[in-house]
Structure formats: C-alpha cells, structure tokens
Write a structure and sequence with these properties.
The protein has 18 helices and no strands. It has 367 residues and is an all-alpha fold. Helix content is 68%, strand content 0%. Helix 4 runs antiparallel to helix 7 and helix 9 packs antiparallel against helix 10. The chain is globular, with a radius of gyration of 21 Å.
Length: 367
C-alpha cells in the first residue's frame, strides 16, 4: 500500500513542514551576520521541528505508546526505582521534565526540543563550511523522521553529535563527559569514543596534539584491554545479539550504503582536488570523511540485520555537513550534489509511501 495515496493530507503536512524548514534555514543563513546565535529564524526552525515531532499522538511511531505506558507515566507516579529495564539517564531526564509539567505528551515535546535543538545548533556550527539549508533538508528527509520512532536513542545521538564541537575546540574532557552522559541514556553511545580517537589521530596542528597522538598510540593496547573488560562486565550483549538475530529482523535488501560509499569516495576525491574552491582545509576533510565512512562501513551490517543501522547514527550525523560542502563554480561538485539531492528526496518519499514505521497517518495527540 502506498501511504501517500492513502493519506494525502498527512503527506501534504509532512511536505509543508519540510518546505517551511527550508525557508527558516535559508532565512537564518541570510541573517546570520547580524543576529548570531540568537537568530529568530534559527529559533523558529528548532521550535517547528520540535513541536511537529513532540505533539504527535501515541499512534505516530512504533514505540511511543509503549514508552508512555511502560516508562513515562510510571515515573510520574513515583515508580522510578521499580523500572529496571530502562537506562537511568533516560529515567532521570523524564523525571526532570516532570518537575515542569504533569502531561506525558509535554514530556515528549521536551524530549523532541532537546533532540532537535542539539542537532540543529551543531549543524549551525558548520554553516561556514557547508550549506545550512541543504544540511537541514538532509536532516529532515533522512534522519528527522527516524526520530519519531527511536527517540530515546536519538537523544543520545544528539548529545554525542553536539559534543563533537568540543573536539574542534580541543576540549577533550568536555567531549568525554558528553559521551558518558549520552551512554547513561542509551549505552550504544559508547561508540562516540571513536570520535575522540579519530580527531586525535588525524589532528596534527600543534606540538601538543602530535604528542597526544603518540601517547594514544603507545597506550592503545592497554586502553583496548580496559574497554574490553568494561564492556564484558557491564554491557548486556545478549540483548543486542537477540535483537540482531530476531527472526523478524531480516537483513535489508537496499543498496543505499554501497551507493553512498561510492558517492562518498567520489565526493572526497573531488573536494580534495578542488579544495581551493571550498571553505574547508585538508585536516577537516579527513576528519569529516573518516567519521562518515566509519558510519557507512558499520551500515553494511544492516545486510545481516536491518536493526544494525541503528549503530550508524552516531557517525552518520556527519553525513549532513559532508554532502553539503560550500564550493565555488565546480561542475563536478554540482553534479554530485544533484545526485545526493535526488537520493535525499527519494529517501523521504520512501519513508512516507512505505509508512515509515507508522509515521503515516500523522495525527496530533489531542485528535
């Protein structure tokens, strides 16, 4: 069944929010010099995405109703310590939100606000290197609609993604704290430490950074052993193995990850040859490319089980600035961008036409 044909009103609503998001992103980019971070269009964009995601009914998205009944409402009822199958960070976050409201759907709205604010503000950091409008379009079509389902994991993804700004500022301790906080919400967030390794290994701008890289290389065997012991001791591998091996979780038959790998390599080589036409340097290109390709390689596991795609989100957030590099007069870069845009639009169409894990039809929580 084509859900767009079945529910045209919902499809129009999703598309209208998409267009309005692009308008806000474009206006925010135009006003960035005079308004800075407090750009009203940027704030409106965050509110638009958050309200649309947060005000949906518990029928929009697979796990929403389950989370409300099993976790969110019991925390309001004072049963915080009786819930043993949920991460302490998520429970604490819900408890904090309940200090402000007593409505479960307002809690969901606050979760959506936190998630979208962190992601959009991090994308705003890249606005001089990449097109902010295209990054927002890519976010909406490829990842934003996913947050309607795995919203707990995307809180953690958003925290890790936002924390990467500390790596650029060489504030490694702040980044580590961010990843630890994200791990208390969703333990797969421990993958975020891979960012730290990538930035240390690829950065060589100062003597201090080169020295830090040598220390990392020397201590890596001990660090690997410590991490292995901690993972074995504290992580519930059985849960993820059962999730990946579940009979209903068949491997994907799509070709998106192989196609993206090919396109990504072509884009990397093209940007490297035309770097004088872009706003990035070679170190930044290597960092962006390394993180993006780590996500793509992990994504190949989805051919074993489509649930493995969830592990990619911590790195695929860098896909947005990577495919949106600003450039000046380059026909080849322009052609690659058109291919990416076609892929982006097709992704949104397939999510809506196929139901997108119950995001169609869209209804507000009061309907």
């Amino acid at each position: 069944m084509n859900y767009i044909v079945e529910y045209p009103g919902s499809a129009v609503l999703y598309f209208a929010v998409f267009l309005l998001s692009i308008v806000c992103a474009t206006a925010a980019s135009t006003k960035q010099k005079s308004r800075g971070l407090y750009n009203p269009w940027l704030i409106f964009l965050i509110l638009l995405l958050s309200i649309f995601a947060g005000m949906r009914s518990d029928h929009v998205g697979v796990d929403v109703a389950h989370y409300i009944v099993r976790y969110i409402e019991p925390i309001q009822a004072g049963r915080f310590f009786e819930i043993h199958d949920m991460s302490v960070g998520f429970k604490a976050l819900v408890w904090l939100f309940y200090l402000i409201t007593d409505n479960a759907h307002i809690v969901l709205l606050m979760i959506a606000l936190l998630t979208n604010a962190l992601i959009v503000l991090r994308l705003w950091d890249f606005r001089k290197k990449s097109s902010f409008s295209l990054m927002i379009a890519w976010y909406y079509c490829v990842y934003y609609l996913v947050t309607f389902n795995i919203f707990r994991q995307f809180i953690a993804v958003a925290i890790v993604f936002y924390s990467t700004r500390f790596l650029e500022e060489k504030r490694y301790r702040s980044f580590i704290v961010g990843v630890i906080v994200a791990t208390t919400i969703h333990n797969v967030s421990i993958l975020g430490f891979i960012y730290l390794t990538v930035y240390i290994l690829l950065s060589s701008e100062t003597h201090k950074e080169r020295k830090l890289r040598r220390y990392l290389m020397i201590s890596s065997p001990i660090l690997i052993l410590i991490v292995a012991v901690l993972l074995y001791r504290f992580y519930d591998f059985d849960h993820y193995l059962n999730l990946l091996n579940r009979a209903t979780n068949r491997g994907t038959d799509g070709i998106s990850f192989p196609v993206k790998i090919i396109l990504g390599i072509i884009l990397y080589r093209t940007v490297k040859k035309n770097m004088h036409k872009t706003n990035i340097n070679e170190i930044q290109l290597r960092e962006f490319g390394a993180i993006y390709f780590i996500g793509l390689l992990i994504g190949l596991l989805s051919y074993i089980s489509f649930e493995a795609e969830r592990f990619t989100f911590y790195f695929m957030m860098y896909e947005m600035p990577y495919v949106s590099f600003r450039y000046r007069r380059s026909g080849k870069l322009q052609l690659i961008r058109y291919i990416y845009i076609a892929f982006m639009i097709y992704t949104m169409y397939s999510k809506l036409s196929g139901g997108g894990s119950q995001i169609m039809p869209y209804t507000f929580y009061w309907q």
